[in-house]
């Protein structure tokens, strides 16, 4: 049905009507006092979301722009970095780091499993000459629905004493607690079309004092993503280059909604939706792709055994106007992913599970009794 | 008056309601067939606007992102380039080129004057060893309201035989004819919040075959702005990273409106508005900052003699809800700029001139007879 699609993918995520209306407003001058007031307000709201005293800068660009900014602003050519890689976005970190001539040591985990924090501890402890300049990882690995133990890994980096922690929080920020200051994170990158509940086009980067010290040393060439320019203009509640003014309107509206709901409520809601989705899938008879205890609060990846996940997704979309995410790369057809990130309510989770269950039944692929998934999920939502 | 502001600045420019409604639609998945259809259609529309057979790529980012992409994709560290600089955006080219370690020779003209094409001819002719890899310039210099003679300069670059032409067409594309193929331009960069009539956040880059050959040789580090990734995904009507989906909705709607109006009509309208603004300002008794024959079709810069341009701007905004642009850097307070770019009709031009005239009168600063500006502008609009 036209314009009826419900996005249950990890991004773009559903956008509240209030935010859409803000995005659809007529733009104003980006150097006007009216716009400076918006930059000032959203800066404060972003600090609240990041649980930090650090400045959070807004970039007009995809989440990858913030990832690149993290690297080119804190490192220099030839620097050694330690990258965690347990999925598509971990892989991307490695690619970005290599593109800028860094020496990359990779700590891998199989897709679907979390990074082992002890692997990081070991390598960091052995680095007595402090060659490792940064530890780079993904908090919520969107491709596999795994949440990595960022808090523990960050502790090991702090114990190292020299390296900084750079982390992709694109699908964790706004889904679970990422207390930047408490955990001692140095660079936190995120994107608008996720927990922020706004359309894609803005990305965000928060930097600790240690990261700014690294910024002053960094010699990688940069201009559009030179965060020093952003920090200087942020002091005047402005931007170095014309920003996506309309997405800023949406950002202000969305963060206001988030502040009204409150961080604790937002995180509880995401945890409840993860639990309901996990319980629903298991009751349907579909195995979770990641261990239950490592499941991301943003997205649940589901293995489909001998069923073609793409056929299931296609039918769910055509019959129920719900868009699920597919598997990426070698997982295409083998898993599907249910996004429960951002502006998602209990109804959305329940109907997604019902649609999956009903679709499997219509395809004669449902092993368990019809309704078992809904019953299990419903119980978790109560 | 709230929400009543008319933007007569060089960007963001006024956005049609149809485009705003498109921008305010709920996002869809950026890997969906529905979105691929939009990418396919806008790619064709962009070729039409650029009057080219070359692929035109869409980047989520400000116009400066496209400028940086132009440089880092076609040049290598230490390459010599020839930069035209006759205003704020010419200066920016020099800054970007230097940030990436290029050897920059600058051809300057005083702010308010056009670049002298013979200066380019001379330097290029003397470069017998073909050390100059690119000639980089701004077509419409937004800071001073000057249009540079891109066609002639491009001819001299072609005669050189080795260098490529990289040009910022941010405020010329959609305001006057920029026939990329006919003029032999190699890299054309532009931004959404200008002649495109959509809010800021997207930028565009078109590259000739010669530019793509340079891309293959270029060794500057890049990832987010690696155009090879954009070209590969463009072949599949997609993007390498999550694009600003909602701005794409607006892009499609705006380019459709432009195609309905037709290129010739659009260019005539801009030329008429330039002529009316120039005539109006002269009749009011305010000198044009740039020679009349070098005036940009996008923006007219006006000198204010002993009047503080910022006070004039403030009063025009407060009394008539019209936002004019101020002077940048050393020109602050000394000039104002009337944007007549994009979704601007005769009424907008006439009311801007009337508001300027009435404001000067209310401040007791009007030398000539009240109504002279409107009369002169009105005549040019007929």
Order of helices and strands of chain A: EHHEHEHEHEEEHEHEEHHHHEHEEHH
Helix content of chain A: 40-55%
Number of strands of chain A: 13
Rg for CA atoms of chain A: 21 Å
For the record, what is the CATH homologous superfamily label of the largest domain in chain A? Type I PLP-dependent aspartate aminotransferase-like (Major domain)
Report on this structure.
Two copies of one chain form a homodimer. Chain A is α/β, with parallel strands linked by helices. The first copy, chain A, has two domains: 17-260, Aspartate Aminotransferase, domain 2 (3-Layer(aba) Sandwich); 262-381, Aspartate Aminotransferase, domain 1 (Alpha-Beta Complex). The first copy, chain A, has helices spanning 17-23, 33-50, 63-74, 88-99, 117-126, 150-160, 180-183, 209-217, 227-234, 245-261, 263-284, 309-320, 346-362, 372-381; strands at residues 6-8, 56-60, 80-85, 103-108, 132-138, 140-141, 146-147, 164-168, 187-191, 202-207, 299-303, 322-326, 335-339. Chain A has a seven-stranded mixed sheet with strand order 2-10-9-8-5-3-4, with helices on both faces. In chain A, helix 4 links the parallel strand 3 and strand 4. In chain A, helix 11 (263-284) packs antiparallel against helix 14, helix 12 (309-320) packs across helix 13 and helix 13 packs antiparallel against helix 14. The radius of gyration of chain A is 21 Å and the shape is globular. Chains A and B meet through helix 1, helix 3, helix 4 and helix 10 of A and helix 1, helix 3, helix 4 and helix 10 of B.
């Amino acid at each position: 049905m036209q314009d009826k699609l419900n996005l249950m993918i990890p991004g773009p995520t559903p956008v509240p009507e209030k935010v859409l209306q803000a995005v659809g407003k007529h733009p104003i001058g980006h150097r006007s006092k009216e716009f400076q007031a918006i930059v000032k307000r959203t800066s404060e709201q972003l600090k609240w979301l990041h649980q930090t005293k650090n400045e959070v800068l807004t970039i007009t660009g995809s989440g990858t722009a913030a990832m690149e900014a993290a690297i080119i602003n804190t490192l220099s050519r030839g620097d050694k970095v330690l990258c965690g890689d347990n999925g598509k976005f971990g892989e991307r970190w490695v690619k970005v780091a290599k593109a800028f001539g860094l020496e990359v040591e990779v700590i891998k985990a199989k897709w679907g499993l979390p990074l082992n924090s002890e692997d990081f501890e070991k390598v960091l402890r052995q680095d007595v000459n402090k060659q490792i300049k940064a530890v780079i990882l993904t908090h919520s690995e969107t491709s596999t629905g795994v949440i990595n133990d960022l808090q523990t890994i960050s502790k090991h980096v702090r114990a190292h004493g020299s390296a900084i922690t750079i982390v992709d929080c694109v699908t964790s920020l706004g889904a679970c607690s990422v207390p930047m200051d408490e955990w001692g994170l140095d660079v936190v990158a995120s994107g608008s079309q996720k927990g922020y509940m706004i359309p894609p086009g803005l990305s965000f980067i928060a930097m600790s004092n240690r990261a700014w010290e690294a910024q002053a040393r960094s010699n990688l060439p940069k201009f559009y993503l030179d965060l020093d320019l952003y920090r200087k203009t942020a002091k005047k509640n402005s931007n170095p280059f014309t920003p996506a003014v309309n997405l800023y309107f949406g950002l202000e509206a969305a963060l206001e909604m988030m502040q009204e709901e409150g961080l604790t409520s937002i995180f509880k809601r995401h945890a409840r939706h993860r639990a309901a989705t996990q319980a629903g899938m298991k009751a349907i008879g579909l195995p979770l792709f990641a261990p239950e205890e490592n499941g991301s609060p943003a997205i649940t990846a589901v293995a489909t055994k001998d069923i073609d996940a793409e056929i299931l997704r296609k039918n769910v979309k055509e019959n129920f106007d719900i868009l699920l995410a597919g598997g990426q790369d070698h997982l295409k057809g083998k898993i599907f992913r249910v996004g429960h990130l951002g502006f998602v309510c209990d109804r959305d989770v329940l109907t997604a599970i019902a649609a999956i269950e009903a679709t499997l039944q219509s395809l004669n692929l449902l092993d368990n009794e019809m309704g078992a998934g809904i019953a299990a999920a419903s119980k978790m939502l109560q």
